[in-house]
Design goal:
Blueprint lengths: L1 H5 L2 E6 L11 H13 L3 E6 L7 E5 L2 E4 L4 E2 L1 E12 L10 E8 L23 H7 L7 E5 H7 L2 E6 L39 E4 L12 E8 L10 E9 L9 H6 L4 E2 L4 E2 L2 E8 L3 E8 L5
Helix pairs in contact: 2-4
Length: about 290
């Protein structure tokens, strides 16, 4: 829904299903949210339906849970902030990153650590506590990244493109997989893989960027929705190019060269999106389906 409304690119993580992708750790989420929230990306989270022992009551729009959350329900992220401890231990963290999450119902809030009445707030500088810890039943609450990771089932974010968001640079390319011509399938299909569409992306280091400083990119391979037709399984692979190389990369090169980065999995859905940390360089990106001639 994020993408359909904004035209942006959405990342999706399912904390329950490790086969879809590597679920980000709490530290990964804190880094992503702190950076991308400041860049005006949109965030949503969801909780799957829970077993009866965790439920107080069931409403038509979700399950009220004993921890104050709602099963079968979606939430939004409205703020990310790093708070300073009043008396941090000498060998421990001096700050904590907290997420302000909102239940669209406007009530029924998290009851764990960092909730409105949590004694954890006594560990925070008084000026920060008085400004941000508002005790009221408005559906908004603060939560640690690790608790969010443990209690929510899904986590997704949408990076809105320019001109709304000027923090991300964007490029888009169009191609076709045609059976017998350009639908070469995955890399192990060495006789046909090279026929897939190929595109060049230039991530050469800028003057202010160190050659070995990693760059964050988000790559998405999308396919159209066609009525009564199943989605193909999508993936992509990146190959670093030297100064003299041009596209298309020949069959002999791809047979003898290991890709540098990839989507890691093939995903049978409208799109497959992956966040990558890559070295500055020119790359060939080859989107493909799992099977040839799909």
């Amino acid at each position: 829904a994020f993408e359909d409304i904004t035209g942006g690119l959405a990342e999706y993580y399912d904390f329950r299903n490790k086969s879809l992708s590597d679920p980000p750790t709490a530290d990964d989420i804190a880094k992503i949210q702190s950076t991308d929230f400041a860049q005006h990306s949109l965030f949503g989270m969801g909780i799957e339906l829970q077993p009866p022992e965790k439920v107080i009551s069931t409403e038509t729009t979700g399950q009220k849970l004993r921890n104050g959350l709602v099963g079968g329900h979606a939430y939004t992220l409205v703020d990310v902030k790093e708070f300073n401890y009043t008396n941090p231990p000498s060998n421990g963290p001096k700050t904590v990153v907290l997420l302000r999450i909102r239940n669209p119902w406007g009530n029924w809030e998290w009851k764990g650590d960092w909730c409105d009445n949590s004694p954890k707030w006594n560990l925070i500088l008084t000026t920060e506590r008085d400004t941000y810890n508002k005790i009221r039943d408005d559906g908004s609450f603060w939560m640690s990244v690790s608790d969010m990771r443990a209690n929510f089932s899904t986590f997704d974010m949408c990076h809105v493109p320019p001109p709304i968001n000027h923090h991300w640079g964007t490029d888009s390319y169009k191609g076709r997989w045609e059976a017998g011509q350009t639908a070469g399938g995955r890399p192990s299909l060495v006789q046909t893989y090279y026929t897939n569409p190929q595109f060049e992306i230039d991530l050469s280091p800028a003057a202010q960027t160190a050659p070995n400083q990693l760059i964050t990119i988000i790559v998405g391979v999308m396919q159209p929705v066609i009525r009564d037709q199943a989605f193909r399984s999508l993936g992509f692979f990146l190959y670093k190019l030297d100064r003299k190389q041009s596209l298309p990369l020949p069959k002999t090169f791809l047979q003898g060269t290991m890709y540098n980065y990839s989507s890691q999995i093939f995903y049978q859905a409208r799109e497959n999106v992956k966040r990558l940390e890559v070295l500055p360089a020119r790359y060939a990106i080859i989107p493909c389906t799992f099977n040839a001639n799909d």
